[in-house]
Amino acid sequence: MIFHPLSEGSFTIDQTKEFVPFDTERDQLQERPTGSLLVEIQPFVVKTATDLLLLDTGLGFSVDGELQIHRNLRALGYAPEEVTKVLLSHLHKDHAGGIAYGEGADRKLSFPQATYYLSAQELQFAFEKGMPSYPADELQILVDHTQVRFVSDGDRIDGSIQVMHSGGHCPHHQVFLIREGEQVLFFGGDEAPQLQQMKHRFVAKYDHDGKKAQQLRQQWWEQGAKEHWTILFYHDIRQPHWSC
Question: For the domain that residue 135 is a member of, what is the CATH number?
Answer without folding.
Answer: 3.60.15.10
